[in-house]
Amino acid sequence: MKCDIAIVGGGLAGASLAVALAPLGYDIKVIEAVAYKATGQPSYDDRTLAISHSSCRILAGIGLWESLKADATAIRKIFITELARPGRVVLDSAEMGLHAFGHVVEARRFGVAVTGSMERTENIELVSPASVKARTRLSGNVCRYLQKNGIMARAQ
Description:
Blueprint lengths: L1 E2 L1 E4 L3 H10 L6 E4 L16 E5 H9 L3 H4 L4 E3 L1 E4 L8 E4 L9 E5 H14 L3 E4 L4 E8 L2 E6 L4 E4 L1
Parallel strand pairs: 1-12, 2-3, 3-9
Antiparallel strand pairs: 4-8, 5-8, 6-7, 10-11, 11-12
Helix pairs in contact: 1-4
């Protein structure tokens, strides 16, 4: 199996990286240990993710925010206190000229958006379940990844 880019891990970061790099035309393989769309995928569970305003803009730039924003909750105020201590600080996004500091999104919903984007992208292939057993640098930027099932991936 040959590719231009091999991304080890198809969780939040790896899948997002694949989607971000896809418009550059590279042949991308995402090697993920958990079976594709498994309910036990630990990256896409019931946790909530606080996504900063800048990160929301990045997600918009790679085409993911449009499918997330309907389920996202805006972070408009942040309350900062210290347990058993007097006082507090309140940050208000409106006072800073922002609609919101960011948004809160459920990780499972993020997973639906990013895996859906990978499915629709022709030059991304998700290889799963597969784990990398070893990585060898062959020359320059060329690496070989040996997966536990014996399949070799060669990426540059």
